[in-house]
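Field notebook, page 232. I keep forgetting to write these up properly, so this time I am using the form the group agreed on. The chain and the ligand, adenosine-5'-diphosphate, are recorded exactly as supplied. Prediction of the bound pose follows.
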Amino acid sequence: DAAAMLVGAVKRYGFGQSAVVALDDVTIGFPAGKFTAVMGPSGSGKSTMMHCAAGLDQLTSGRAFVGNTDLSALDDRELTRLRRERIGFVFQAFNLVATLTAEENICLPLTLSGRRPNAAVLDEVVSLLRLGDRMHHRPTELSGGQQQRVAVARALVAQPQVVFADEPTGNLDTRSGQEILGFLRSAVDRHHQSIVMVTHDPNAAAWADHVVFVVDGRVHDVIDHPSADSVI
Ligand code: ADP
Ligand code: ADP
């Protein structure tokens, strides 16, 4: 049972002699209700894999599924709607809207699709992420760790089918990073959310249920129940 899946996925950038094959026939499922880490050398295709699985970028050939939905069968409008309603995103650079408060940022994906947050979910996320007294602040009035906690809250309050996180702890100190990872872990354990996280950090990957290693655009290995030592 996959929250998201790539089947025979090929992604080529450019044409002819200058073409780069970023994904080279990748078939991989990201299991529902699990925390998956994606690791691999710089340039191995991790971001491309994530962007294609999340419908942010199109495959050259092969298929990407979110649940049972084949993304290649959707037009742009349907794809935008699927991303808003069924996917959560966390980026290394936080990507908060500067003119909106923390609360408005957190609720933005719901607002954009005409929905309102479940009050109980919002309360729990805000309290676990210790954002209760920051909800009316704008991003410039928040620390880096607080900004990333807002971004994580935004990705999770709509309870999407799958959350994609690209180096979510890359810009944080160790303590803020551990806090985010602990929260992601609890969202999986307590609420069966499905999380796919790209990371360079073995200590971050150790929070995951399994680690997918990407090398040269291919899935090289999958390790279950990783420890920081087993994924270096
Ligand atoms: P990673 O996330 O593992 O660092 P990427 O998915 O960013 O790897 O990149 C995989 C390969 O695709 C690299 O060789 C990179 O240079 C190339 N690449 C990524 N994005 C583009 C792009 N927009 N145009 C051309 N080449 C790209
Ligand atoms: P259901 O929605 O079927 O009642 P859930 O386990 O999804 O079961 O939610 C139960 C409660 O857990 C919710 O009412 C809310 O308080 C909380 N909750 C649900 N999803 C999340 C989440 N992603 N993060 C934090 N709390 C959540």
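OBSERVATIONS:
- Residues 49 and 183 are 24 Å apart (CA to CA).
- Residues 120-121, 124-125, 156, 159, 187, 191, 193 surround adenosine-5'-diphosphate (ligand 2) (CB under 6 Å).
FOLLOW-UP: compare against the apo run.
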